[in-house]
Amino acid sequence: MTTPAHWLAGARPRTLPAAVAPVLAGTGVAAYVDEVVWGKAALAMVVALALQVAVNYANDYSDGIRGTDEDRVGPMRLVGSGAASPRAVKMAAFAAFGVAAVAGLVLAATTAWWLVAVGVACILAGWFYTGGEKPYGYLGLGEVMVFVFFGLVAVIGTTYVQVDGFELAALYAGCAIGALACAILVANNLRDIPTDREVGKRTLAVVLGDERTRIFFVLLTVAAAIAVVGVALTTTWWALVALVYAVPMVGACRAVIVDRANGPALVPVLGRTGVAELLLGLGLFAPLLLQ
């Protein structure tokens, strides 16, 4: 019998900073430009968290029925481990997508109806990452979509619904958040290169190979810093507080480049990168809110 602990593990709570950080960053930009609309910020947070959980369950379901997770190194998967039936996990994914859709509809109704199209694109991107006959996550496009949807769309969208306009600072913030969101996926896929290659899952890490994937991880860390400088140039130099994200990333990059971490040894790298993304979001939110 599937227990609540199983469902919690399947939701992969350690990935939730990737949902919280862009909303914090986008709300910080909104605060600097005009003011925070806390109700809309809360709805944006619900959308982001629900989408993250939905994607996690959807990946669990799709990878599980393909047999991709049979020899998984990382955290437990519900379908792959047999802890839950594929149908139950699929329904859980749809339920989470539904929560995101409802919150998103409220935002669209109170902001602009064209945002419904953005929401539909987010849901489709979440499902077809590993779902469908030709999932783009199996074609080396996962990082691109993560950067777009969990970086640019999430941050710019959060700012837009509060200030009703596009802000250049939100673009830079979206690039910073997106870079670290990509780094999380890169570390995950670096860990899974051997098993993904065996089952024909051509992630970007499989395409690049071990060495270039490690270099890519570091480049994403540097790219986030450059984007933070862009935020500071378009708002206030206090935004550089967000560079605190580099503290956990130093250890993560050392593990990837110097220690050559593989397999289970890359799990802490995922944790550090998730913490770094959350710190980046907080580092933008707090100073921009107080200015």
Task: Please give the structural blueprint.
Layout: H1 4-11, H2 17-33, H3 38-66, H4 78-81, H5 86-110, H6 115-127, H7 142-163, H8 168-191, H9 193-198, H10 204-208, H11 210-234, H12 246-258, H13 267-290
Helix pairs in contact: 2-3, 2-7, 2-8, 2-13, 3-5, 3-6, 3-7, 5-6, 7-8, 8-11, 8-13, 11-12, 12-13
Number of helices: 13
Rg computed from alpha carbons, rounded to a whole number of angstroms: 18 Å
Choose one word for the global shape: globular
What's the structural domain tally? 1
Q: Give the termini distance in whole angstroms.
A: 52 Å
Question: What does this entry look like structurally?
Answer:
The protein is mostly helical and 291 residues long. The chain has one domain: Farnesyl Diphosphate Synthase (Orthogonal Bundle), CATH 1.10.600. It is 74% helix and 0% strand. The protein contains 13 helices and no strands. The protein is globular. The mean pLDDT is 93.
Structure at a glance:
With 291 residues, the chain is mainly α.
Features:
single chain, 291 residues, mainly alpha, Farnesyl Diphosphate Synthase, 13 helices
